[in-house]
Write a structure and sequence with these properties.
168 residues, mainly alpha, two-stranded antiparallel ribbon, 4 helices
Length: 168
Amino acid sequence: MEPLKTKVGVSAGIAAAFILLAGRVSVLAIALCLAYAFLIEENELVRKAAKNGAIIWVIYECVSLVSQFIQYIARFFDSYSYSSFYSVMSKIDNFIELAYLIVVVVFAVIYLFMGLPKAPAPAYNAQYQGQPYQAPQQNAPQQNRTCPTCKTLLAGPGICPNCGTKVD
């Protein structure tokens, strides 16, 4: 099982969520988090979160860049009706921002839960077909016994099946 703590002692889930949310702060924050995750940290959960956070951030920046490019082209060619176009584009920009925020928060929550300790799995025995195994109660120590007459190995006290001798 992989460790649930990072090298700095923080929970791996919290570190992963922080790295995902770093893209909301600035380019420098996501760059520092990526450098930490890939150069210093050994926890795979943190590395996977850094990779996914960078991918999500790059997709968001590309979509925002396309939106801004469309606005600049519209402003360049048509300056008279730009105000109505601007209101539509600002709503589209707000939608892109909200979608990015929702995706980042959902991924952060998922990684936060992935960093929690796992509950131990119950022991199963194929004989019981999926029912949890319960160890037998041991009231008295059981010993393998041998018949004093024919030296047959017996499971416990009783009568020897070979010679009929009573064994206590």
